[in-house]
Specification:
single chain; 298 residues; Rossmann fold; 8-stranded mixed β-sheet; membrane; signal recognition particle binding; SRP/SRP_N; GTP binding
Length: 298
């Protein structure tokens, strides 16, 4: 996969550093293990997660009788993939009707991700409706609608400043009347007012439960990978206020900070569902743990 071979971005730096640590070593010894640990810790992978990876790596090496340092990269990728593998939870719920609430701070790539997911679902033959429930940000609704037009789906929107739950209410009526498979709802990303955000989400969730009880649900958190450790603290903050069912990790095309995906998946038990790899509607990939972790030894 071309993306994972790209040395400049994503895991490129990590891959190179691990390669350097292994090169020329005659055997797997404590010195190598210490060096690997150091590399992981300094690659946006948290301390606890690094410790877990190292422990699993030692077990894997022992159980599989690995003695050649050249095979350590692959072992590491397998261990990391397993840590990120949440089974079916790594995929978007396939049941319909489905309501997806998209949350995350402004600028993270929420609008773009909504469009990308909508586009993917359309390609799968599903009918999609968008709800512009970020009524706080000026022009958020217009931006969403522009994307909606691009991917060929309708957008329900109200005036700026309107009650987000009212938008959701209208969108649900419309989705039901038109027999839509998936309703994707944009929300305002105001983390600085945690209590407000919590109340707002609660209200939206109540409206969905009341008006659309038959719908399956997803709450996806959009995180910008380029922000590194900030994305991890956002995961923490949003985890406190919402029942997150999955993560969309954006902007992995332009960063060597892919390591945070491991921390997020491990520390918060959040399944990564999609990764954003560009600004266009096709630049979204379903998350496959082994493929992702495989980037380490490309
Ligand atoms: P929002 O404020 O969270 O809705 O963020 P937007 O969807 O408007 O995106 C903010 C900026 O990030 C825009 O310039 C997008 O084109 C860009 N963007 C979003 N996702 C990606 C991605 O996966 N890769 C890259 N390179 N840029 C992205």
């Amino acid at each position: 996969m071309a993306l994972f071979k790209e040395k400049k971005g994503f895991f490129g730096k990590l891959s190179e550093r691990i390669g350097d640590a292994i090169m020329g070593r005659p055997e797997i010894d404590e010195d190598l293990m210490d060096e690997l640990e150091e590399i992981l810790i300094t690659s946006d992978i948290g301390m606890d997660t690094t410790m877990k990876i190292m422990e699993d790596l030692r077990t894997y090496i022992k159980d599989n009788y690995i003695t050649n340092p050249a095979n350590v990269k692959e072992a590491l990728a397998k261990v990391i993939a397993k840590l990120m593998d949440k089974g079916e939870r790594n995929q978007l719920c396939q049941d319909t009707p489905l309501v997806i609430l998209m949350i995350g701070i402004n600028g993270g790539g929420k609008t773009t991700s909504i469009a990308k997911i909508g586009h993917k679902l359309r390609q799968e033959g599903k009918t999609v409706l968008l709800a512009a429930a970020d009524t706080f940000r000026a022009a958020a609704g217009e931006q969403l609608e522009i994307w909606g037009n691009r991917i060929g789906v309708n957008t329900i929107k109200h005036q700026e400043g309107a009650d987000p739950s009212a938008v959701i209410f209208d969108a649900i009526q419309s989705a039901k009347a038109r027999n839509m498979d998936v309703l994707i709802c944009d929300t305002a990303g105001r983390l600085q007012t945690k209590k407000n955000l919590m109340n707002e989400l609660e209200k939206m969730n109540k409206v969905i439960s009341r008006e659309f009880p038959e719908a399956a649900r997803e709450t996806l958190l959009v995180l910008d990978a380029t922000t590194g450790k900030n994305a991890v603290s956002q995961a923490q903050e949003f985890n406190d206020v919402a029942e997150i069912t999955g993560v969309v990790l954006t902007k992995l095309d332009g960063t060597a900070k892919g390591g945070i995906a491991i921390t997020i998946a491990d520390e918060f038990d959040m399944p990564i569902k999609y990764i954003g790899v560009g600004e266009k509607m096709d630049d979204l990939k379903e998350f496959v743990p082994l493929e992702f972790a495989g980037g380490i030894f490309e």
